[in-house]
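Weekly structure sync, notes
Attendees: PL (lead), two postdocs, one rotation student
Agenda item 3: pending single-chain targets
PL asked that the sequence for the first pending target be pasted directly into the notes so everyone works from the same version. It is reproduced below exactly as submitted, 544 residues in total.
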Amino acid sequence: MKIVLNEIEYEIQENQTIQEAFLEQINSEDVIAARYNNSVVSLNHKLGQPGEICLITRKERDGRIIYIRGLLYLMSKAFYELYPESYLTVNYQLSNAMFCEIENGEITPEVIENVKKKMQEIVAQDLPIRKVEMTPEEAKEFYAKENTLRGKLQADINKEKVSLYYCEDFYHYFYGVMPISTGFAKVFDISKFRDGFLVEYPSLTKTDKIEKKEQSLKIISAMDEYDEIYKLMQINTVYRLNKKLQEGKIKELILLSEALHEKKIAEIANQIKEKKNIRMILIAGPTSSGKTTFAGKLGMALRVQGIKPVTISVDNYFVEREQNPVDEHGNYDFECIEAIDVGLFNAQLLDLLSGKEIEMPTFDFKTGHKQYLGKRLKLEEDEVLIIEGIHCLNDELTNQIAKSNKFKIYISDLTVLNIDYYNRISTTDTRLIRRIARDYKFRNYSALHTLRMWNSVNRGEQKYIFPYQEEADCMFNSSIIYELAVLKQIVVPLLEEIDNTNPEYSEASRLIELLRYFETVKDTDLIPNNSLLREFIGGSIYEA
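Predicted structure, written out during the meeting:
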């Protein structure tokens, strides 16, 4: 049969694996998996029909995900061989690292050194990692015999096939494609961190080395806060969340999530009041973090404190279109800070803070020019400005304003819910699922459109938001414990519209597979109309 690779057509024997068919090309590059007719597959995948193959290296997003997944598998095998009674958990992702803990033991420098050495030995042996599939009946018998939770969630959701990855006599399951042997792990490190340890891996831009970075203590604190609460509530995994939903406890979960948000927002409002000189609140965060609802809720909490919020939109302060910078492709770059008329913005902010009245511009995006339509504003003594935008944590945006007058807030959906103790849910995935739902509900965009834009959105966040997150005075975690169980019924049908003629098919399939692990919450009437989740499913009182 005919298979196309790198625009060259090959005659391939049916049922050959990708590795067997293209061994020369795979060995000449840093290949970890492949995309076969737009599905991400293992190099051991058997070719069963004509089509196109694209080899995946760890220099791209899909390859990096598989690389990280493989490292966690190696780490778990090393612990299994050295400390078989260890109860390991993969908690959450930090900068180019996964933070892990042992719940029934202590992580010492000796443990770290032993595990790292064992992992290096396993890598040097280049042992095969093979996928073993079972029927649901076989899986039921297997788990009854083994008395293990590793991969058990698959069986509990009645999958047609339950699979485990074996390396020698060690088995585990990670939810997605795995490298085919242990020799893939060319660059990694294990280091002690707080009461646990980090499994470190290269960045996408520098794949040949580990870049040691200081971890964001504010991000860690925000995630720890929710992690501890969910552990105490015994709902820190999808398995446990599903049990709660099956028991009809959705109302309890909704009340818990809303109470957590209200408590934190009230604390932030109190912080602002105690600082006395704050005249300006700057809010930034990546897309689909819930900034609109958060700003509305914070405004109400400030009013309770006797502070009146006044909102200014940075979007009205773009430079004139002919002055707007362009990117490397010659397109207007509306996300860079040079696209903002920082001079005018600061001049008007200074006037407001000194008690003067200003005439605010309105930017006409059709003509690319600011207009003055008589909209005037004067800031009273008991009023504060609330400004939300991509550059709000960057002091360059408000370079003429004293730091003592500013209070910066970083907001993001910092997911701490894991599928199980080894398989975490990416905060990026949760935001993407939120974005797909919102784009469909409010912008009439298809899931395909959202997926096609996503890499560009991520690049902007990496460049203009994430580098400044530690500049924030406080962080707000907008995650909601049950949100994917609600978003599932909206998003899965949209993703299922994407077929394998589209490059985005592999991403759509991966997200569908993730959402399949959740029980579905069909009745959303219990969700309050001021809930942050309403920003993505509709019915919010904060909608314009």
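Discussion points:
- The CA atoms of residues 160 and 229 lie 34 Å apart.
- The chain has a mean pLDDT of 91.
Action: rotation student to compare against the earlier draft before next sync.
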